[in-house]
Predict the structure of SDR family oxidoreductase.
Amino acid sequence: MQAIFITGGGSGIGRAVARHFAARGWRIGLADINAGGMAETAALLGDAPVTTHILDVRDRAAWDDALADFTAASGGRLDVLFNNAGIGVGGVFAATAVDELQRCVDINLMGVVWGAHAGYRYLKASGGCLLNTASAAGIYGTGGVAIYSATKFAVRGFTEALDGEWSGEGIRVRALLPSFIDTAILDGMPVGSNATMRERVKAARLEFTPVEEAAQLAWDAVHGDRLLTLVGKTARRMWFASRFMRGSMRKQARGGR
């Protein structure tokens, strides 16, 4: 039985991916700092074999323990490591507290780095896949979420680098670049004038992508050859514009100036 280990498995994209893979016969490992959220996810997986692991992705040693526990339950298998845990930090950059900036970097970037570092030997043994959650904010920098954009650019670059470095070792490396997925992270991410990201998206009349679509695209990414998978219409539009309309994107980001 193939096995996937999912960080941020207690909610959002992590939960949707767990349900999608479980429905297709996979063993699921859920990792999160939220035990209650993981229990809720596990209850949705039917008869699929599942283990839960309290994990702060900032803790490199804790990664070793969590993956050892998971592979002990899976018979040594780790076919996909889904580095999905992340937080949203928004607002005026210069007014953002130093500890909030550091926390965003430690979770969104270093959590991915530590997961890849700890998971390498298992993925090499299985010929598996490292799947990272980046963001459309890693396509072109987004005002109001500067540090978040920075971490997601870094995850994208890290994915591209490891794709080159690990391809000769039989490990597939992929990333999702979601735009506005309909999850709770949008509600806890203030972006200027105390408005949340959800309110900003509504005001701009942009779309919210169902979390189930992200789960299907995660499945496609694991089983296909596409390095970066765009999730949502806004992500696809941003990718096109970043390649062919960079001047227009800059003007829009500067408020038309």
Notes: The mean pLDDT is 90. The chain is about 50% helix and 15% strand.
